[in-house]
Each structure stands twice: as structure tokens, then as C-alpha cells.
Amino acid sequence: MDCLFCKIAQKKIPAKIIYEDEHAVAFEDINPQAPVHALIIPKKHISTGLDLKEEDNALVGHLFQVASRIAREKGIAERGFRLVTNTNAESGQSVFHIHIHLLGGRRMHWPPG
Ligand code: AMP
Ligand code: ZN
Predict the structure, then answer these.
(1) Nearest protein Cα to ligand 1, atom 19
(2) Measuring CA to CA, how many Å separate 85 from each of 14, 28, 101, 102?
(3) Chain-centre distance of CA 73, in angstroms?
């Protein structure tokens, strides 16, 4: 399958990987929108949140655990941070392998735009 994030997870394309375990990988976003901007992905290919199955529930929880771990390691947990998962065209999703953006290290705006 021709998927950028599958290739990053399989180390076929380089990325600044900051966390990895059996089920998940996290790496620095190539075009950071905040001082901390990491992407947390499952190793399993899932295109969007709309494609999640009941059997993926634990995996999604695990991705949030990884996000919290990275936020603590980066020293932004107490200050606060934002987790974002874009879904389909109007959200701006550009890579169709589900991912959580971890954004922090600056004041986040609301509404997000
Ligand atoms: P989204 O627009 O929500 O699908 O997010 C995709 C994100 O992937 C964007 O923030 C991009 O900057 C990021 N991105 C695209 N290609 C790479 C890459 N090769 N390595 C790291 N991040 C990437
Ligand atoms: Zn993929």
C-alpha cells in the first residue's frame, strides 16, 4: 500500500521518531505549527477516524496514552497542549493514515480556524 505514514512506521522513509512500541509510533511533524508538534500513529493502517472498528478501541486509548507520555517528556503537560485528529477534506486531512497531532509549547487559539 502506498501510504506515507505506513512507510515511516516501517522505516522505509526517514522521520524523527520520538517514541515507538509494538502498536504505535510517534515522530516530529515535518512542518511544525507549534514549538512541540508531534504525530502519533498506529502501526496498523487505518485511513480515518471513520474507519475505526470496535476492535480498535484499545488501540485508540493507547494512542492517547502515548500522547500524554510525550507531552510529559516534552515538559508541556502541566501548561497544556492540544490533540487534533483531522478527518476528511474540510478538516484539512492530507495524510490518510489516522494520526493524532500533539501541539503545544505556545498558547493555542480558539476557535481553531
Ligand atoms: P493532516 O493534514 O492532519 O493529515 O496532517 C498531516 C501532517 O503530516 C501535516 O502536519 C504534515 O506536516 C505532516 N507530514 C507530512 N509529511 C511528513 C513527513 N514525511 N514527516 C513528518 N510529517 C509529515
Ligand atoms: Zn498507512
Answers:
(1) 30
(2) 22, 15, 6, 9
(3) 16
> Which atom number of ligand 1 is nearest to the Cα of residue 92?
2
Helix and strand numbers, DSSP H then E, in the chain = 2, 5
Q: What is the pLDDT of residues 71-89, one digit of tens each?
A: 999 999 999 999 999 999 9
Residues with C-beta less than 6 Å from any ligand 1 atom: 4, 15, 27, 29-31, 39, 86, 92-95
For the chain, domains (ranges, CATH) are 4-104 (3.30.428.10)
| Burial (Cβ within 10 Å: 0-12, 13-18, ≥19) of residue 38 | buried
Percent above pLDDT 70 for the chain = 100
